[in-house]
Amino acid sequence: MEEDLELLPLMEAVELSKEQDERALEQCFDVMQATHSGLLKFLVEGLSPNDAMKYMDLISMCNDRERMESMLRMMIE
Question: Residue 21: which of 67, 61, 56 has the closest Cα?
Answer without folding.
Answer: 61
